[in-house]
Amino acid sequence: MTICGEIQPDRPWRLSRKMRVILFFAFEGAAALLIGFAALFLSFEPGWSAERAQPAFLKASDARSGSLLLKTEDGYADASRLGIDVDLAVSGPTVRARVTQIFRNPTQNWVEAVYVYPLPSGGAVDTLKMVVGDRVIVGDIKERQQARLIYEQAARNGQKAALTEQERPNIFTNSVANIGPGETVLVQIEYQEPVQQNGHEFSLRLPMVVGPRYNPAPVVQSVDFRPDGGGWGAIKSDPVPDRDRISPQVLDPATNAPVNPTSITVRLQAGFALGEVKSHHHAIKTESPDGNTRIIKLAEGPVPADRDFELTWKPAAEKAPSVGLFREHVGDSDYLLAFVTPPSVEQSEKKPLPREVIFVIDNSGSMGGVSIIQAKASLIYALGRLQPGDRFNVIRFDHTMDVLFPTSVPADREHVGQATSFVGALQANGGTEMVPAMRAALSDNANLGDANYVRQVVFLTDGAIGNEQQLFETINALRGRSRIFMVGIGSAPNTHLMTRAAELGRGTFTHIGSVEQVEERMRGLFAKLENPVVTNLTAKFSDTAADITPSAIPDLYRDEPLILAARLDKLSGSVEIKGRIGDRPWVVTLPLANSAEGKGLSKLWARRKIADAEVARTTRQATPDEADKTILALALEHQLVTRLTSLVAVDKTPSRPEGEPLKVTELPINLPAGWDFEKVFGERQRLPVTPTERRADAGEAKVQVAALKRPVPAVTAAPSTVQLPKTATDAELRMILGVILIIFSCGLFAFNRRQALLP
Amino acid sequence: MRRGIALLLALAGLVLFGQGGYIHAKALLAQVLLERAFTETIATGRATKPWSWADTWPVARIEVKRIHARTIVLAGSSGQALAFGPGHVENTPEAGERGVTVYSAHRDTHFRFLQDIVIGDEIDVTRSDGKTFRYRADSTSVVRFDASGIDALGDGHELVLSTCWPFEALTPGPDRYLLHATLIGPVP
User: Which of A162-171, A537-546, A609-618 has the highest mean pLDDT?
Assistant: First the structure.
């Protein structure tokens, strides 16, 4: 403006020809900036920013009004304590796990303890035992609501009772009622799971802690209630209806020593001569009574339950057995479990198809700490592995989302370089809105002429969300020809989410538990991505009717075995497995008579069938009612804990004297190792979210009377709510800004003229 | 010199205004082409694309006679489809079938008329097979986009028209306005 003032009023135009050009660009830049800033400020919509003020996490203490466990700065000195002992017996293809939880009540009150704990997502929980003094009470399987009622009744009557419920396929709760002052109660659950096989390596994973999950906060406002269905949508519309049940208290590692000491013993009988046995995250000591057996214990005694235990073993021989066939006879039926590793065929003769790889990276707050470092390292490794003929894109998300390139770009040096620096600059912060990112990753521009590319989505996350169902529905609706490869990051990823998402997306799940594993695991994943091995798989039994699971066998990638469970009418004939390796047919025939005796196969079969029914429910192949009926029948027949069934054990002799109140203690869990407490829960000072009026009697308020406990929760079916698309354009915003600018410029014109007219 | 600034600002203003106007013009123009394609769809019984490069096609027509509102619904609810017309949200049933049919559109273009609908209005939906079903508007609500509470496979025959809320807002937000309607029956 000062330049304008210096211009001679009598020759305003001629002098400034050159200046005008300069000023033209200067002001154009300024105008663009102005508009940009205006758009920037206006695009922070008020609805969102208002929400951000309140904490995004609802914790048990927020939502469960009747059973607050109040936390004080001095820790949980008076609250109930818990010890965990895990005994894993591996025999051939299966793992039988016995988890003993020791509840001790150091208080002067009768308490009820509630403990939320994770299990492997393929695990089939079938036994609950409660040890009181020298008596052992064995639990029965019951429909979930009925089991709840029995438990509540026993709790009121002063009887000792234990209840095992499934909250998610990999999250369970144990409740124990009426633990007397100074008393100790043992609760033992047992589960069965299949051994994982990958190439020549076998493995098992024992999840130890439930990572806090980001549960999208519900906002429901009603303008007008429906006349017929009073309160329509008020409860149903919460995307995480059971948020209070899967959000236990979490201790800040900075102010509390790790709790829940855990000891682990593994009896490993692989059925073949063992080679290397390795624990990835814990120091172990190993004994070998004979060549086929190992006994593994934690080297430093009990550890805090803050990271998953992972054990892998290899056969002494160079190659793992490529076929395994096991049988079990239960009731009238025979159950069969088959492992078949397809032969690896040299791919070099055939040029692999070019690929379009979409990388999605979660940089939300739950990824803070080591996780984001692992995720970034994994992604940067992956970018380096792209071949010149490939195309790729990168998406990052927290509660917001960025897509690096408008469409997929060729993996040349320049683009890969750009992507690498984009990934390198990511910081972990904010919430986890996974669904929009998945939608973006699955939006496939096949019409742009890249339909010849094999489309793969590599999704790196810890899966710490509670609205899994929405993600599954998104995948199911939009997956098209894309394959989804989940990469679980951190010490305690949500295995259920990862496994199911990979299954629905016809890809695989890879877990990266530490920075050291990044290269090895990502190399394995990329070997798979580059080489799909066997497609179009089918299995047929020669002379018996068989109920096979999985019913649609997914594609196999390199080093992956086919795992097949079946229920047979009679054990005779053979099973024929057919598929295509590359463009050649592949057939293998296994005579059933050669199978070896195995344990717990019927339960594994039932667990898989239940998982299939849950998938069918998600994919709308079965109505919710049909699916639930199938699940209930299987669960009751095979004594399994599921979404619809629970185990309940009640001691017949009452132990709590009448008149003594029962108090509820919710046992805190550790934050998974490597998580950053402040990133996950916001600033430390804001926690605990304790109602101030209760602080006065903090000593007494740590536990609460059972009578005030939460109402009996109904069986909460996973929500199947419709996600509504974005339905606003910025047309009017643009038009209004446009009008403002025009008016402003008119004003300026008028002002100019007046100035020019002045002498 | 100042005139130069003024000119520039005026130009920027015109461009912005033009972009806004373009969104509206596209929305209006597309409906004409869609109307034509939909008529052809009913006549031939085959999904017809409104223009050759379209990635969506008309699937239904919504009509509210009282306020003379009429619009063609497209398959899918992607941002691209919504620029041209309301979208039939994926995984919800067709009109007239059991469950909750959900159509979604922009509040400032195709579903601006939602604010004029009052409880009791009749909404006619014509499907691509030519059958028309009449619904009665019976309630409205405001929910968050990811917490609609709509169970698409629920009992009953319902229709939900959804758009962004509030109507007057200038920037996109997480809230959605829902108009619930219940099936009265087929229109002969």
Answer: A162-171
pLDDT at A715 over 50: no
pLDDT of residue B146 exceeding 70, the answer is yes
Q: What is the pLDDT of residues B63-103, one digit of tens each?
A: 999 998 889 998 877 666 788 889 888 768 888 887 888 99
Assigned token pair, A614: 């849950």
CB < 8 Å from B in window 719-738 of A: 720-738
Least confident stretch, A333-337, A353-357, B112-116: A353-357
Side-chain half-sphere exposure of A612, counting CA atoms within 13 A: 19
Q: How far apart are the first and last CA of chain B?
A: 69
Which percentage of chain A shows pLDDT scores above 70? 69
List phi, psi (to 5°) of B82: -65, -20
B118 touches chain A (CB under 8 A): no
CA distances from A370 to A93, A280, A429, A492, A672 (A): 33, 16, 13, 12, 11
Per-residue pLDDT tens for A245-294? Answer: 666 555 555 555 556 678 888 988 877 888 888 888 888 888 888 878 88
Residue A201 CB burial class (10 angstroms; 0-12, 13-18, ≥19): middle
A243: number of Cβ within 10 Å: 23
The sign of the dihedral angle between the CA atoms of A685, A687, A693, A697 is: negative
Q: Which of A176, A177, A212, A205 is nearest to A101 (CA)?
A: A176
A206 residue type, one letter = L
pLDDT of residue A674: 54
End-to-end CA distance of chain A: 20
Residue A69 has pLDDT above 70, yes or no: no
The dihedral through the CA atoms of B107, B110, B111, B116 has a sign that is: positive
Contacts of B9 in chain A (CB under 8 A): 31, 741-742, 744-745, 748
Residue at token pair 């214990």: A297
Instruction: Name the residue type at position A425.
Output: A
Q: Is B19's CB within 8 Å of A734's CB?
A: yes
**Interchain pair B9, A729: CB under 8 A:** no
Cα–Cα distance measured from residue B23 to residue A730, given in angstroms and rounded to the nearest whole number: 9
What CATH number did the domain enclosing B126 receive?
A: 2.40.260.10
Overall domain count for chain B: 1
Higher pLDDT: A189 or A39? It is A189
User: What integer pLDDT is reported at residue A395 of this predicted model?
Assistant: 92
CA dihedral B8, B11, B13, B17 (to 10 degrees): -170
- Beta bridge pairs of residue A339: A324, A563
ipTM: 0.78
The distance of A503 to chain B (nearest Cα, Å) reads 20
User: Kindly report the CA angle at A239 between A648 and B178, in degrees rounded to 5?
Assistant: 140
Q: How far is B27 from chain A (nearest CA, A)?
A: 11
SS (H, E, C) A57-121: CCCHHHHCHHHCCCCECCECCCCCEEEEEEEEEEECCEEEEEEEEEEECCCCCEEEEEEEEECCC
Which amino acid, A326? Answer: F
**H or E stretch covering A750:** helix A731-757
For residue A102, the number of C-alpha atoms closer than 13 Å in the C-beta half-sphere is 15
Q: pLDDT at residue A462 above 90?
A: no
CA-wise closest residue to A212 among A715, A679, A698 = A679
> What range does the domain containing B50 cover?
2-187
Helical residues (DSSP H) of A325-402, grouped into ranges? 370-385
What is the bridge-based pairing of β-strands A220-221 and B132-144?
Answer: antiparallel
CA A241 to chain centre: 17
Instruction: Count the residues in chain B.
Output: 188
- Length of chain A, in residues: 759
- The number of CA neighbours under 13 Å toward the Cβ of B169 is 22
Cα A215 from Cα A236, distance rounded (Å): 15
